[in-house]
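User: Fold this; tokens only.

Assistant: Input:
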Amino acid sequence: MFSFASAQEATTAWPYLYPEFTQGTVYMAGGNKISRKLNVHVRADALHYLDKDIIKEASTADVLYVEIGEDGYMVNGPSLLKVVLRNGDAAVCASILGNYDALRETGGAYGVSSTTSATRKLTSIDCDSQIGRNHMLIWQSRHDGQALELITKYFLVTSGFVVPATKKAVEEIVPEARRQEWKTWLKSHRIKWNKPEDVLTVAEFFNEK
């Protein structure tokens, strides 16, 4: 299920989830911990960090978990999933990305022609490469780009699977032998798939014997 959140800080010139790079910790598969100033790029869905004020992109291949400030992130392939709710081995996580498709729409608002408006938006999108640049220069010009709306997509995460928090996606991983049981369970629980609290209860079905 998709929900939309207003981006107070993110713009095409500053396409980051946090208003500034924030102290965090990267937990590696081998047991090592790396402390860096971190941020999440909402277009590339990537973990960026500072190396002497220069922005670099981290590989998540050997990363188990990331903490940025008080927020925690699980790693799902190259993607970062922010932990929203957690109960034991189960969690509801969120992928939070910029709604770049909305910027490509042409409206011609406020007396500006559709062609001119679209050109300005696309130009700002094309100029959002931050890797290898001094982060202060980008931060100082963060308001020069288009404001970014954020899209949040929830996932149910357990020790056995990561699945989008939608009825259809979850049904696809229910074993054939438990399909009828699943239908009965759903009728009694009335899950609202855009509510993390409800999604977390779905893990209970898979924990039942």
